[in-house]
Amino acid sequence: MLPHSHSHSHLSLEILFFSISSLLQSYLMATRFKLQFSISLAFTFFCFFFFTTFSFTENEELGNLLRFKASIDDPKGSLSGWSNTSSSHHCNWTGITCTRAPSLYVSSINLKSLNLSGDISDSICNLPYLTHLDLSQNLFNQPIPLHLSRCLTLETLNLSSNLIWGTIPDQISEFSSLKVLDFSSNHVEGKIPEDLGLLFNLQVLNLGSNLLTGTVPPAIGKLSELIVLDLSENSYLVSDIPSFIGKLDKLEQLLLHKSGFHGEIPTSFVGLTSLKTLDLCLNNLSGEITRSIGPSLKNLVSLDVSQNKLSGSFPSGICSGKRLINLSLHSNFFEGSLPNSIGECLSLERFQVQNNGFSGEFPVVLWKLPKIKIIRADNNRLTGQVPDSVSLATALEQVEIDNNSFSGDIPHGLGLIKSLYKFSASENGFAGELPPNFCDSPVLSIVNISHNRLLGKIPEVKNCKKLVSLSLAGNAFTGAIPPSLADLHVLTYLDLSDNSLTGLIPQDLQNLKLALFNVSFNQLSGEVPHSLVSGLPASFLQGNPGLCGPGLPNSCSSNLSSVHKTSGKALMLALICLALAIVTFLVVSYRYSRKKVQFKSSWNSEFYYPLRLTEHELMKVVNESCPSGSEVYVLSLSSGELIAVKKLVNPRNISSKALKAQVRTIAKIRHKNITQILGFCFTDELIFLIYEFTQNGSLHDMLSKSGDQLQWSIRLKIALGVAQALAYISKDYVPHLLHRNLKSTNILLDKDFEPKLTDFALDYIVGETSFQSLVHANSNSCYTAPENNYSKKATEEMDVYSFGVVLLELVTGQSAEKVEEGSSEESLDIVKQVRRKINLTTGASQVLDQKILSNSCQPDILKTLDIALDCTAVAAEKRPSLVQIIKLLEGISSSVSASAEKLPVSA
Ligand SMILES: *[C@@H]1O[C@H](CO)[C@@H](O)[C@H](O)[C@H]1NC(C)=O
Ligand SMILES: *[C@@H]1O[C@H](CO)[C@@H](O)[C@H](O)[C@H]1NC(C)=O
Ligand SMILES: *[C@@H]1O[C@H](CO)[C@@H](O)[C@H](O)[C@H]1NC(C)=O
Ligand SMILES: *[C@@H]1O[C@H](CO)[C@@H](O)[C@H](O)[C@H]1NC(C)=O
Ligand SMILES: *[C@@H]1O[C@H](CO)[C@@H](O)[C@H](O)[C@H]1NC(C)=O
Ligand SMILES: *[C@@H]1O[C@H](CO)[C@@H](O)[C@H](O)[C@H]1NC(C)=O
Ligand SMILES: *[C@@H]1O[C@H](CO)[C@@H](O)[C@H](O)[C@H]1NC(C)=O
Ligand SMILES: *[C@@H]1O[C@H](CO)[C@@H](O)[C@H](O)[C@H]1NC(C)=O
């Protein structure tokens, strides 16, 4: 190893003496032994210079290192061992490496990650064999230390991850010996200087994560020895990728990600034959890549062009070199199919093509690649199946193929993969039953197979003890919730909503630390475990008529066993649907008296609320006919409840799954001024929506009754409630919905005359075409905005118009549907009537409802009339928005409540 330091000077004197004596000896023997002489002379001189140099530079090197240390702030004392009193040789100091040939010289200083700051002294440039300086990951806060260009032997300069600031000056070219230059992760700004091109020896140039501006100068194209070029994460470097980069044929890593590169990937890239890593992600690149990166890049190991604006088809021949490990094309506009040649990618570990427009069959070979770890293809339009042979992909960790059109079943083979940690395949067409081993991977954490067509029982889960998130929502699972779920101690998200699960909610689920528990819209029954209602998790229980417990519509009654109750209810629900079927049958056969109507399909039903119906009640309903003029059947239940039933024609172009989802979306609306959907029944021909019904009938009924009058303050409350409800469904609720059929018959009043909107957003359920025919068949056009006839798109303004008509009914006390008897003119709708009257008479008060008029409220009614007239403006853009209407009505309302005490109740 190293010589002992205290003997150095003594040793070198001895050797010096030996050298001189041998020199004399040689001289004396010169004439006789010429050959010998010359050899020994050469040897002697060599020894002489070698050891003298050694003895002199020894202390010099040490001194230079100490001078270097002196200008550095070293808060952690990492360099405390650098001292001339130290017992260890300076070649043994922290961060120092010495060469052994020609002798011990400092060749490398590596002081990374020591929290150093201060000045970088050029005293180290006096170290004659220093080739390597690494000061990365420190806190040096200064411009680029140009004086280090005095270090004539320096090959590597690593100042990465400091606080270096300022521009790269032209004098950078003076670092003529540099092979590796790393200024990454600093605050270097300004343009990349042309003179960088003079560093002909450069093999690694890393300027990543800085604040560089401008474009890439052509000089970079002269750096023909470059192996690594990193200009990534310079978001102000807004440039196209210059084609001269394609000439750098020794380049192995080209990292240009997360900068401002735009335009196309140059075709010259075919020249990058040594390239292993190409990272262009997160730029603004466009065009196709097929021509530029193809079979020529035989050494490619990693290709990442994700998150650009690239288009065209999948790059062909990408695996011709068989070395590709990472392929990421995600979040671009690629389309077309994925080629089967992907099977050549035997080294492939990560395959990410999500968020593109790929279509066609997903190559089955991909599922068998021996090294594949990540398959992401979500949000494309791919078809195909996951084959049972996926079990050959023994390294598979993560599968995300959500939102495609995959079909077939979830194969048994998937459960055999022991490394699988995420399987997300929601929004596809997977069907059939889940294999019992679907959750067998011991590292499985996330399963999302929601919104498929899976059915049968949910298998017991045993082995996936790491499962955190399980979503089986939106399938057709039946049977009970497997109690073994309660053994998965880290389970946090459990979504079983929108299935047909029955039975009790397992008590033991309470023991889990769930953050989300969603079992809504199933057919579960019985008492909900206490802590799932009152505890921390966000619980979603609605749409299970049989569930009972605190906070639910049903409180648990102890005398009936819950199982009995449910089956009884199920029977009742079946009966009501049957009854409705009969009603429908009667009505329909009456309508088309000659035509025999038969339902070819069976009844489906879904209830979100426990309806108690007896056979007797149902018989009554069958005998009752639909009240004339009304669009709903009203059923009176023995419990005193009224339900309203709305009949719709099933447009048949929507699947029952979609239909259910649509109705559920609407049934989930919760607003005081909106009637709730309690459930629905449907066949292929018809749909029956069941609404809650309210005690005081509709606004239309109240206004046309000659006896009791709604006083003004109530009318105003109704107007405000309706406006709030409309604003809620169109602004706050997601999806945004329009009413599209607002009229006084669709505004129901409860016992306190609070309004409740009904019959809304039917277009969302049956689709535009069916909705149009429905409305045209039933509508009284005076509620319909004039632009409805020519406008293709329904708008909020149209709802505002209908609302204005309702307001006119409220202020005039007149039904919009009745045309004034005495009028000899062509029948005028209420809007035209009111406008005409206002024009003819001097005062607008003429049109107001005389029955409720009093001096105190007249100004408010007139203000409301103004709003109504604005709402019914012929030009849609003149109408106020719902938000404006609410503000105006609230203004009026506050003045009413202020004077409410004084207001006499009108008879
Ligand atoms: C250098 O350090 C090593 C251990 O780190 C030690 O064994 C060796 O003796 C040291 N050499 C000198 C010359 O101090
Ligand atoms: C470096 O210094 C910072 C404060 O300047 C401190 O937060 C950090 O922990 C230090 N790092 C080390 C490795 O000592
Ligand atoms: C420079 O140092 C950083 C941090 O220590 C390191 O990650 C990087 O690889 C080094 N650069 C080169 C070219 O070796
Ligand atoms: C991307 O490029 C387009 C033009 O090709 C330009 O309009 C757009 O602003 C760019 N976006 C970014 C984020 O640079
Ligand atoms: C589903 O994928 C399509 C592309 O095929 C995309 O347009 C759509 O936004 C995706 N849906 C969701 C919910 O991400
Ligand atoms: C499961 O997938 C659905 C549909 O793609 C998505 O809405 C939901 O957020 C996912 N659930 C989890 C827990 O990731
Ligand atoms: C309508 O609903 C709101 C709650 O959003 C409620 O405060 C109000 O009393 C209801 N009725 C009216 C007339 O606003
Ligand atoms: C009412 O009178 C105004 C002018 O005063 C006129 O512009 C408007 O068309 C009239 N409206 C009707 C419905 O006749």
From TrEMBL:
Gene3D superfamilies from the UniProt entry: Phosphorylase Kinase, domain 1, Ribonuclease Inhibitor, Transferase(Phosphotransferase) domain 1
SUPFAM superfamilies the record matches: L domain-like, Protein kinase-like (PK-like)
Membrane topology: Single-pass type I membrane protein
InterPro entries per UniProt: Kinase-like_dom_sf, Leu-rich_rpt, Leu-rich_rpt_typical-subtyp, LRR_dom_sf, LRR_N_plant-typ, Prot_kinase_dom, Ser-Thr/Tyr_kinase_cat_dom, Ser_Thr_Kinases_DiverseReg
Principal location: membrane
Domain called Protein kinase: residue spans: 618-892
One GO cellular component, as annotated: membrane
Transmembrane segments: 12-30, 37-56, 570-590
Protein's recorded name: non-specific serine/threonine protein kinase
Organism: Cardamine amara subsp. amara
Upper taxonomic lineage: Eukaryota, Viridiplantae, Streptophyta, Embryophyta, Tracheophyta
